[in-house]
Amino acid sequence: MLPWATLALVALNVALFWHPLRSPRGTCLSVRMVWDQGQWERLFLAPFHHLSASHLLLNMATFFCLGRQMEMEVGSLKTGAVLLALALLGSMLYLALNLLLAATTGDSWYRDHCAVGFSGVLFSLEAMGRQVDPFPVAAMANSGFAITTRWLCLLECLILAVFSPRSSLMGHISGILVGLMFAFAPFRLGIA
Predict the structure, then answer these.
(1) Please, what's the b/e burial string for 128-140 (b: 16 or more CB within 10 A of its CB; e: otherwise)?
(2) How confident is the model at residue 192 (pLDDT cuts 50, 70, 90)?
(3) Are 95 and 35 contacting, i.e. CB atoms less than 8 angstroms apart?
(4) Is residue 189 part of a domain?
(5) Is 30 a catalytic residue?
(6) Structural domain range at position 12
């Protein structure tokens, strides 16, 4: 079975990179552009636009592995619906977190910070799978202490923020939180 939903979303991301609807600055997600100026279409555009070929390649290679795996387990239709829901919910949570940070810190940077890319969805997928089926990556013999993959996506998120400071930490954290929401939701949809 071909992973049609995964392939379609990879094709969409590649097509929008080569023929963007707008520039990344015109599609990026920020509190100022969406909530202050009412550019709600950015909720849908931002996840599918990328800043560079390397940004696109890294996101799509990772997505192909994660998306294909989920699609083989639950089917194309459910996978497509879940992926689009993750993209939209991740975008909305990203805005809410930045609005909260702007209000609590008084720093307008959080209202202006603009993000694009599919990595929030990737962190959602990773968080969903790692919560439902964690496995140990390190253990101390006879102590009962084990480090599992349960928190690995958070560690990856922090490492990425250190080594790629231009990446959107809030976008990645939003993705993780949405993935956790899906992993622990009562309706779980038979995912992961």
Answers:
(1) bbbbeeeeeeeee
(2) very low
(3) yes
(4) no
(5) no
(6) 4-184
> Which residue in the list 119, 124, 168, 174 is annotated as catalytic?
119
Catalytic, 19? Answer: no
Structure tokens at 148: 């599992």
Quick one: pLDDT at residue 130?
64
Instruction: State the sign of the Cα–Cα–Cα–Cα dihedral 64, 70, 76, 81.
Output: negative
- What is the domain-level CATH number for residue 104? 1.20.1540
For the residues 89-94, what does the mean pLDDT come to? 97
This prediction has a pTM of: 0.85
Counted domains in the chain: 1
Identified catalytic residue from 49, 50, 113, 172: 172
Residue 37 inside a domain? The answer is yes
Let me know if residue 190 belongs to a domain: no
Within a domain: 192: no
Q: Which residue type does 140 have? A: M
